[in-house]
């Protein structure tokens, strides 16, 4: 066999790469959320509003008592000049911050409940701050000055980030101190609250009511259920597989219809020269093969449907009140495009920058993958060949291209610093779909099924 490169092989690679990259971005966002993953609800003060519109410590205590979450974290941030270092961003943290956000401790420990309860002057710093202040990473137990007070260094955090994160502006270096300590030294307003929200058991509308109950304006805050975010990110990968699977099922249905038509046509021709039972006797091989073929196609179709089906989620604000209204549909589309194009990555909280960037990147990857997937499926209807040897060579070439695309995609994704998870079932599904669609559009399948010469209807 001689491998023959075709332009359509590029379409296969771009589709495969987009499919796996979308899944990797989904997994990476989950990893950024530490052990809580996507099962959290975030309350964030809207960008560009003054910090004073956030929560104070007393309001957070009231909100915590009302909501009674299984796990929570609260944090405020302010820019501060640390003696001997450039401008840094000081995070005042309370609760289980490192359970909600990925913290790469190189050495020491993170801020805990006792540090907040006792209002200790302790600090966790990034390794870049350690190098800037001391020229070394061995700084545990040493002190730095924050808000004109001495703070003991109890932990060092690595700033090593994946290559994909370097595409956005990192911003200022960060240090972490107890929120109660920060509030003692300078008035702290909390603009970020995160609750563990297993299976979306916290209702967003109820949370809004509770925020108003403690004296804040609920419209000042963006409330986001990451269970929903996770579903939306995951389904981008699922939709790409779904489109391929549904197209393959469409081809299988047409295949069944053609087999039934062939059997009916054969029966009509046979009845012209034979009685009914003679027709059955003479054509039993045709009928048995036809029944077995249809049964096999149904089993294969069931497998494909089980693999590609998923629960599709769309937020209510993306659904027009009147689906038949062209004006409302255009308005929704315009709103979606405007939100996507005008997204601002200058939010002062690094975690929010990363989440926003990755979610938009995943949307872009999805549309690119969908376009190239459709282009490839359309290209399969191309040149037909009645030669079995040439058909086998074409399929082997596609198989080599598929394997190469998977391997190259894995390498690229790995270089981006993203997690890679390849499902062999997904790869098998893609390969089976390519084979089915290719052979169907070759137009020789009835002869292969029944071993008979005959004209196949144009498709």
Measured as a percent range, the helix fraction is 40-55%
Number of strands: 10
Q: In percent, how much strand structure appears in the residues?
A: 5-15%
State mean pLDDT (0 to 100 scale).
84
Residue windows where pLDDT falls under 50 for at least 5 positions:
453-459
Number of helices: 15
Summed up, the domain count is: 2
Judging from the principal axes of the Cα atoms, what is the shape? elongated
Main β-sheet: number of strands, strand sense, barrel status? Answer: 10 strands, mixed
What is the SS-derived class? alpha+beta
Radius of gyration from the CA trace? Answer: 30 Å
SSE string: HEHEEHEHEHEEEHEHEHHHHHHHH
- Whole-Å distance between the termini? 29 Å
Protein name: MacB-like core domain-containing protein
Transmembrane segments: 239-257, 286-305, 364-380, 392-414, 420-441
Pfam family, one: MacB_PCD
GO molecular function: transmembrane transporter activity
Structure description:
The protein has 2 domains: 8-28 and 230-450, no CATH class; 55-190, no CATH class. Helix content is 54%, strand content 14%. It contains 15 helices and 10 strands. Strands 1, 2, 3, 4, 5, 6, 7, 8, 9 and 10 form a 10-stranded mixed beta sheet that branches. Strand 6 and strand 7 form a beta hairpin. The chain is elongated and about 105 Å long. Residues 453-459 have low confidence and may be disordered. Keywords: Membrane, Transmembrane, Transmembrane helix. The chain crosses the membrane at residues 239-257, 286-305, 364-380, 392-414, 420-441. It comes from Proteiniborus ethanoligenes.
């Amino acid at each position: 066999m001689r491998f023959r490169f075709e332009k359509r092989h590029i379409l296969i690679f771009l589709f495969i790469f987009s499919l796996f990259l979308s899944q990797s971005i989904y997994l990476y966002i989950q990893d950024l959320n530490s052990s809580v993953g996507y099962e959290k609800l975030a309350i964030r003060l809207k960008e560009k509003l003054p910090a004073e519109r956030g929560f104070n410590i007393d309001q957070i205590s009231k909100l915590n008592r009302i909501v009674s979450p299984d796990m929570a974290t609260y944090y405020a941030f302010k820019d501060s000049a640390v003696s001997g270092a450039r401008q840094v961003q000081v995070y005042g943290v309370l609760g289980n911050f490192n359970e909600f956000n990925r913290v790469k401790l190189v050495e020491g420990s993170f801020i805990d409940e006792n540090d907040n309860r006792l209002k200790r002057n302790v600090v966790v710093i990034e390794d870049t701050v350690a190098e800037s202040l001391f020229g070394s990473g061995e700084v545990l137990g040493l002190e730095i000055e924050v808000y004109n007070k001495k703070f003991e260094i109890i932990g060092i955090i690595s700033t090593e980030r994946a290559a994909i994160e370097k595409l956005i502006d990192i911003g200022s270096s960060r240090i972490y101190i107890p929120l109660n300590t920060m509030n003692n030294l300078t008035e702290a307003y909390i603009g970020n609250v995160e609750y563990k929200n297993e299976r979306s058991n916290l209702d967003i509308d109820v949370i809004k009511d509770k925020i108003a109950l403690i004296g804040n304006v609920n419209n000042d805050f963006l409330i986001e259920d990451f269970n929903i975010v996770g579903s939306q990110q995951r389904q981008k990968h699922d939709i790409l597989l779904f489109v391929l699977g549904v197209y393959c099922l469409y081809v299988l249905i047409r295949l069944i219809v053609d087999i039934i038509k062939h059997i009916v046509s054969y029966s009509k021709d046979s009845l012209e020269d034979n009685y009914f039972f003679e027709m059955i006797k003479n054509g039993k091989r045709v009928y048995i093969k036809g029944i077995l073929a249809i049964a096999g196609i149904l089993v294969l179709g069931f497998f494909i449907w089980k693999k590609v089906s998923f629960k599709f989620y769309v937020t209510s604000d993306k659904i027009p009140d009147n689906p038949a209204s062209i004006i409302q549909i255009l308005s929704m589309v315009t709103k979606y495009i405007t939100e996507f194009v005008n997204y601002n990555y200058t939010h002062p909280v690094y975690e929010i920058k990363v989440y926003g960037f990755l979610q938009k990147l995943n949307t872009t990857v999805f549309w690119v993958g969908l376009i190239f997937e459709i282009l490839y499926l359309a290209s399969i209807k191309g040149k037909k060949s009645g030669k079995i040897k040439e058909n086998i060579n074409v399929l082997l070439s596609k198989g080599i291209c598929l394997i190469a695309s998977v391997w190259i995609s894995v390498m690229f994704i790995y270089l981006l610093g993203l997690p890679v998870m390849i499902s062999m079932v997904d790869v098998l599904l893609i390969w089976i779909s390519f084979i089915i669609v290719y052979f169907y559009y070759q137009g020789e399948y009835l002869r292969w099924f029944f071993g008979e010469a005959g004209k196949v209807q144009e498709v």
